[in-house]
Amino acid sequence: MAGDSVFNTNNHGPTGAKQSRKADDLFLQRSVQLFDNGPQFDASFSPLYHKQPQTPTFGHTPQKYFGSERVVPNVDCGLLFEQNDKEIKKVREMNVSYESQSFCQQTKACENFIKTKGYVMDSLSEEERNFPIAYSILVYKSPEQFEILLRSIYRPQNSYCVHVDGKTIGNVFNEFFCIVRCFPNVKMASKRIEVNWGKISVLLPDITCMKDLLSIPKWKYFINLTGQEFPLRTNYELVKILQMFNGSNDGEGTIKRANKERWNITEKPPHTIQPVKGSVHVTLNRKVVEYVINHDVAADFLTWVNKTSIPDETFFASLIHNPQLGIPGSFKGDLETDVGVRKPFLSRFVNWEGLSNRPQCHGKYVRSVCVFGVGDLSLLARRPEFFTNKFHTDYQEAALHCMDQLIYNRTRDEYYQRLGFDLQYYEKLPHIRNIIDV
């Protein structure tokens, strides 16, 4: 079985010695979440989970949300997460798709749509209610995949901004719109931008959504997503981690491994900013979002990166790794996320092609990124990151649906307090100890 330990978070370079197959198999056996569709798996000794047979303390009627199972037809997700070769082979050869009717038809009665799809329309815990999260979701195709993502992260206390690429044709746009209209806290972005890879247009939809979301009070953190991603954490787990972050930001950052030719322009960066190479994917406290939208330094730097190549991989990474700017939650330590995994990048797990000691991709590579298949599920179940990229609904779609089942089951079992989430790994992160005060 291929794959890294849950504690080996670096997906951009050397990740340390591989565990033995025997140790990995034992780790996997203990890490896979409880399933009702197929065999039961003991998660009690996982580094991130432990069983705790208790009763819930928050007084709701969970049957309203967890009364039915999230079943994947003709697929035993439990065996797939257990890396069962026979089941993997069977599902790969099935080549099934899970088509549904038009969302504009399904959402003519929003209440019925929400109930049928199994959206959780309650905060489920006091902690979650008091710690709302804001999301931007950038999409351009596959409303079906977007709906699965939205359902997996939806809570009524959170806020969601959906940007549909300006190139997306009308009937597809309408499908997105019909989903969004059913939820008062899910809004379409105020502007539509035609997104082109390598240009500032990759970054502008997130900035548009940031501005839109700032009109909504109380949310604590901002997370940006695309429609081909999926959560590795439940909402409850994200809240527990972000509470511990206490204003810390998460974003990839490197100077040593930067493609410095991207910044080969005559004009120096403004305000003595040291450009940092990172990812557009970030987890930011609210004050950072306010800084991005309202501060002249951020505006000046946005103008500068617009003259560079791949600006989306420079803008956020540089702002939160230049502590002299005084941006709340910025990292003051050694930002390198490569050697020794000094500062793990948790916002996103991406399995890149061609990097040393990378986990095996059991799906396929598209533009050097692993599109996950059913053979990758055991790896994904053990990762500590917040979200993962990417899935395609036209390729081994059962992988996405099994991940949906996993997050649903974890949400249910955490609600019932059958399952505890261990924060020990996150407590030791340098993110928390070495930041600009919030």
From TrEMBL:
Residues 1-22 are annotated as: Disordered. One of its GO terms (cellular component) is membrane. It is a single-pass type II membrane protein. The keyword Phosphoprotein does not apply. Transmembrane segments: none annotated. Pathway: Protein modification; protein glycosylation. Keywords: Glycoprotein, Glycosyltransferase, Membrane, Signal-anchor, Transferase, Transmembrane, Transmembrane helix. One of its GO terms (molecular function) is acetylglucosaminyltransferase activity. It is found in: Membrane. Residues 1-13 have a biased composition (Polar residues). InterPro entries: Glyco_trans_14. Belongs to the glycosyltransferase 14 family. This is Beta-1,3-galactosyl-O-glycosyl-glycoprotein beta-1,6-N-acetylglucosaminyltransferase.
